[in-house]
Structures are given as C-alpha cells and as structure tokens.
Amino acid sequence: NRNEMNLNLDGTISHKINLGKKLQPTAALRLQLGHFWQQFDPETMPLGYDLSSGMPTAIDTARGYFAFNPSLSAALSGFQMHVGLTGAFDYFTDPRDLAFYIFPDVTITRNFLRESLGLTLGAVGNVAPVSWNAVRLKNPYTMPDAESRLTRHYDFFAQARYSITRKLQFNLKASYNLWYDYLAFMLADNYML
Asked: Which of 60-64, 87-91, 184-188 has the lowest average pLDDT?
C-alpha cells in the first residue's frame, strides 16, 4: 500500500507605491508552501509481487518546501522592469536536512518604434516537487517507493515581439534552461517490459 497526502498553499501580496506619476512601482511578495505525507508498506503489495526483489522497508515520512519571492515592478526611462529573487527552503529531498536555494527573478522590457517592437531579457528560477503522484502520472510502471526530490530550475531568455497591427504580431524567443534533480527514469534490473 502506498499513500501520499499533499497540502499546497500559494499566495501573493502586492502594493502600489506612490512615488509620482512617472514612477509608480509595485512591490509584491509571493509565498509558496508544499507539504507531503508519504506512507509505504511493502507487505500490502498486490498478489504476485515478489517481496525479495529489493523492496525497501516501510516508509512513513513528512517532507516539503517553502519558497518566498519578494519583487519590485516599475517603469523607468522607457524600461519596464521586474526585479526580485526567489528563496526556497528544501526539506523535501531529504526530510532530515534543510537546504536553501536562491533563484533570480528579473525581467526587463523595452519598447521601440511607437511600441510596435518590444525586446525582453529575463532570468527566473524556482523549485518544483517531484512527488510520488507526479512520478505515477509520468510513468505508472515505476517502483512503488520512487525517490522524491525537489527539482530546481533556472530559465534565461531573450524575446522579441513585433506588432504589425493590433491583430497581427510575431514573437521570437530564445532560452537556455538548467534543471537540477530533474525527473528521469531508468529500467530496473529485476523488471521486464
């Protein structure tokens, strides 16, 4: 028997700061909490399952993560800027150890030619949990005690938007992405397709 219960909370608080007509920044704080309770008992697997196939002992654990993202958005000298950072506490990958990560959250846009051409540069990052349910949805043939870990990702991008009319526009985007502890699958020695 394998059980997983999940609680997710996600919220944003924002406030517009009055610094004159030209500069009206908005400060925001986004909070994310993910908490998981996982239980696994190999003795209750379905009939026909070989308990001597390297199955671990019972698992009963709580794991999770907490991320916060303070940011400031403003227009200054023709630039639209969003500047912040994301910090994440990880007790999901190893519930006995608390890790901390910092990610960029920066996007800068500049419009040209009476706003028909827009150029954007950005660097953003965050975390995403790879829970038992996420593994099951990607590959239902995995071992019942699939490894849970927090995937960390960084996205760096440049984008150009060109509007010919209000109803016709073209977008071009180039990006470079980094993933750590990304979900991947390997065939176990004691299983056959």
From this structure: 184-188
